[in-house]
Structures are given as C-alpha cells and as structure tokens.
Amino acid sequence: MTGAERPNRRDEGAAIRHSSRIPALRRGLAVLRLLASRPGPVSAATVARELDLPRSTTYHLLTELADAGFATRYPEERRYGLGVAAFELGSAYLRHDPLERLARPLLRRLVDRVGHTAHLGVLHGPEALYLVREQPRQPQSLVSDVGVRLPAHLTASGRAVLARLPAAQVRALLPSAAAFVNRTGRGPRDLPALRRVLAAERRRGWAVEDGHVTAGFASVAAPVFDHGGRPTAAVTVTFRHVCDEECGQTWPDLAEQVRSEAAELTARIGGRTAS
What we know:
Blueprint: H1 5-18, H2 24-37, H3 44-51, H4 55-67, E1 71-74, E2 79-82, H5 84-95, H6 98-114, E3 117-124, E4 127-134, E5 149-151, H7 156-162, H8 167-173, H9 191-204, E6 207-210, E7 217-225, E8 231-240, H10 252-268
Antiparallel strand pairs: 1-2, 3-4, 3-8, 4-5, 6-7, 7-8
C-alpha cells in the first residue's frame, strides 16, 4: 500500500463513522475493499483503525462478510482475509469481458473521428496482447489483430503501459538483451535504450512507434489506468506512415484524440489517472 492510498481510506472511514446516512452495505464494501488491497490477512484492529470504525462495528461487519463467504477468518492468527465468494465474484466479472465491452464503443468513436485503425491492448508478460480492434471503412492489413501478441518494447501500446511501471518491473519483464526482439531494424535493442524511450514517453504522455513493428506503419498509444492509478491497458491508433529513417514525429494532434478516449475508458472502469 502506498502512502497516497492511506489518507483516502481514512477519509472514507471518517465519512462512514460520522454520517448516519451511510448504509451498512457501504461499510461492508469498504471493509471488503481494504481486505482486497492487502497482500495477506489483517487483524480486526487494523480494519477498525484504517477505516476509523468502532471495534464492535468492525467485528460485526467481518462476521457478516465471513458468513456470506466474502471474508475468511483465520482463528490461529486472529486475522481476516478475502473469502471464496470474493474470488467467485471477481471471476464472474472477468467472464463478462468488462474492459473490452466498455472500450469497444470508444474505439469505434475514435476510428470514425480519425479514420485509422484503433486497438485496445494489455501487457501480457513481455508482450502486448490485443483484445479489441476497430477498423475504418477501408481497413488496412495489420499484424495487430485480436489475440495477437507482439514484443511490448516495440509496440506503442506496450510502451504506453511499460512507461508507467516501476523500473524494477520493467527490468524483470525484459531482463537481458535476448528479450529485445528485433522486427524491422528499428526500436530499442537493450534495457538502457528502452529506459530512455520510456522516460521521454512518460514525460510526453503518450507512446509512439514508427515502423518498429511493421515497416510503413506508425502507432500512437495512451495508457488506461485502474482504480489504483496503475496502467492496465492502452488505446492505440495505427496508420500508414513511410519514412526512410525514423523522423521523430510524435503526432500530438492525433495523440490528443487517443488520450481523450483512454481517459474516458479510465473513467468507465472506475480508474484514476496517475500523476
């Protein structure tokens, strides 16, 4: 848990404690959210302190959650963790493909506005995995189809996510020169080069690739963030662009359109944009 998260929880806890208008359900959800945010079981005292709740109320909520299967009590440790019902609920949520369903109309709107192919991609290990593709009326043949995986360090979608990850995590995903696949002779070929590119793209706010994946095509991508401000996906536009050498274009006008839809998708999934 980061320091930035703690004040938010305490503010929520204070509202729960001092407002009689807050229903019991919201209190229970706050407890459930706290349990989900921790890497392991926590004590009732910790829950009470973090949410600024009376101990009696805390024990009552934890008991109710445990009876419903959303929490598990570890009697020897005197701690509580998530229950199997929470897992089932999360699994059901994923089966509904919420990210794809929420993204598709936004990508369609983006395609209609800019006239280029748009994708939704996520990071899958050291690769970018494409979940959704929307095409203009006259589509162009691209390798980035739904279900396709491409080296994340070469794709705009992959780098849009990588640029917002901790340096140690990027290093773990791409630990050696062997991980830096080359497709067209362009793009970063080792970790120091990738770090320089990611730093520039993080400052700029969007990622760009110019012929790194397929010669004659370029892409612009912006990250989508989850509720914790972590990069969870990227919205990308790919278009025809031919130059003998990388010409350094960043397409800010197009990027503004991509960033707008990425921000809308962030809001739709209940995320918050990282600072």
